[in-house]
Predict the 3D structure of the following.
Amino acid sequence: MFVVPGLNGVCTLDKDPARHGASGGDLDRRIAAAEARHPAVPTPVAGQGENQGWAMGVDFVGVVLVSAFIGWAVDRWAGGHGWWHGPWAMLGFLLLGFAAGVRGVMKLAAKGAGAAGGSGGMAPLPDDEDDD
């Protein structure tokens, strides 16, 4: 028995499980019975939306950063030749990267909506019949 000073005097904590009718083996048996009654079955959909959201965000940011770096490199290379002044290549590549990132996110969203059984608000594209 442990004695702990309390606000209104002394509080005792009894560590003897026999007094409370529960032993360590009894607790283990009850936990096992509860787990058997309620099995944890992970569903394939659990966390899929979050994973897809992270994939979209990383894809978008990555495309924009890589395209901005390519534009910066073109500006540095062209600026060293004396005929190019300003960050125009970086701005142009940044806009192209933004457009490519938006397109990639839309494609991932449409693919995710198709896997979930919905249309994602986007109508399917018609088949191209000009191939003949």
Notes: The chain has a mean pLDDT of 76.
